[in-house]
Design a protein that fits this description.
Layout: E1 7-8, H1 12-33, H2 39-66, E2 76-77, H3 89-98, H4 106-135, H5 137-140, H6 145-166, H7 171-198, E3 206-208, H8 210-235, H9 258-261, H10 279-308, H11 314-336, H12 341-363, E4 365-367
Parallel strand pairs: 1-2, 3-4
Helix pairs in contact: 1-2, 1-4, 2-4, 2-7, 2-12, 4-6, 6-7, 7-8, 7-12, 8-10, 8-12, 10-11, 11-12
Length: about 375
């Protein structure tokens, strides 16, 4: 396919209509379930549902990548100029016949297009959320800025989705697309917390000792670094560079080429000189992610211990501990069980869950000051 055919906008309207139809289901459910509620409660429910569906979209995006379906339709936004694999059946069949185990098959085309339909539906929900929040801003007594920022971000995420296809799974672009999906989750989680606090009886942000707040911020930043490293492992298919744990290739410091491994701007499977990427480079990518995992696991464990110290923050600690063990188990499974699909998708889900959980803690709390009694919020142990 020549470069001019990578973007074929002729099916764009039909793809958008399909996404809008998919979005009608969640919107109708919100309307029927909350038709007697006030604007604040309806918006909170819509935000939570959009957050849930975006989480599902991130998981399906991981499934698309891990089943090598990212190029199931090698153009964008449709599939060989059609709005669905049905209209592109002849082209897909010809590509599959020419290369039966290649990137284009009927199954992979459907997986890729379903991912695009779901992404479009989430985009429609975020558009509705932005306009609804703006319309009800006086009643909610809060700015719609975050809702519009989320809308801008989902548009950027769509652009990276297009580049993922047209640049043939360029590792840096695919990693940025993964990070963008998780940033979208964080933005929606921040909105869900804010909308929950703005409802009657929502209370206020929980005051925490400055040290605890700084710890949350630090662990949050470490988490994003680790997610970026994990995305780099996945997009470079470096998971199986180390097939044992805790050692790698029979030692604690295997041969690694970090310079080549972390050269960011290069094609999939190639180094900066256009030669196949070395195994030592893949080993470096994997092992740096593993070493950073130890740091993040310890940091999450320490933060969970601090949050467990007070009844008010104990639910957050439970979630963090559960997700910590989930990430450890799925990460181990990827290594020792030869990268099973379920564990690989679950590992992405755990990372997304940590983003949601830590964003909720960060947005739902604040640094305690002298005007607020921490004991009133059952956090006295966190203020000592």
């Amino acid at each position: 396919m020549n470069a001019s055919a990578l973007y074929d906008l002729s099916p764009a309207v039909r793809v958008m209509i399909t996404g809008a139809v998919v979005a009608l289901g969640p919107l109708a459910w919100i309307w029927l379930r909350h038709r007697g509620s006030n604007s604040a409660r309806r918006l909170h429910a819509l935000t939570l549902l959009t957050l849930f569906l975006t989480f599902d979209l991130v998981l399906f995006g991981a499934f698309t990548r891990l089943t090598d379906s990212g190029l199931g339709c090698p153009d964008w936004p449709g599939c060989y100029g059609s709005a669905s694999p049905v209209g592109a059946h002849a082209s897909i069949s010809a590509a599959q016949q020419a290369m039966p185990t290649g990137p284009v098959t009927v199954t992979k085309a459907w997986i890729e297009m379903i991912h695009r339909y779901l992404a479009t539906a989430v985009g429609v929900l975020i558009i509705v959320l932005a306009f609804a929040t703006t319309r009800a801003r006086s009643e909610l007594n809060r700015s719609p800025l975050w809702a519009w920022l989320t809308l801008v971000w989902v548009c950027l995420q769509g652009a990276f989705g297009a580049l993922t296809v047209t640049m043939k799974l360029f590792p840096a672009i695919v990693t940025l697309h993964l990070l963008g999906g998780l940033v979208l989750l964080a933005l929606l989680r921040a909105q869900s917390v804010a909308s929950g606090l703005s409802m009657p009886g929502g209370g206020g942000r929980l005051p925490l000792h400055p040290t605890t707040r700084r710890a949350i911020v630090l662990v949050y930043l470490l988490l994003w670094v680790q997610i970026a490293l994990g995305g780099w492992v996945s997009t470079n298919y470096a998971v199986l560079a180390c097939e044992t744990f805790p050692t790698c290739q029979g030692g604690w410091w295997p041969p690694m080429d970090l310079r080549e491994g972390f050269t960011l701007w290069r094609a999939l499977g190639m180094n900066e000189h256009g030669q196949p990427v070395s195994f030592a480079a893949l080993t470096g990518i994997h092992y740096v992610h593993r070493l950073m995992a130890y740091v993040v696991l310890l940091a999450l464990g320490w933060l969970s211990w601090r949050l467990w110290s007070a009844p008010a923050t104990r639910p957050h600690a439970r979630w963090l501990l559960a997700l910590l063990w989930w990430q450890f188990a799925t990460g181990m499974s990827n290594v020792v069980l030869d990268w099973p699909l379920l564990a690989a998708v679950g590992h992405t889900g755990g990372a997304a869950g940590l983003v949601v959980a830590l964003t909720g803690v960060l947005v739902g709390t604040r640094t305690a000051d002298d005007t607020v009694s921490a004991s009133k919020f059952n956090v006295s142990r966190l203020t000592s």
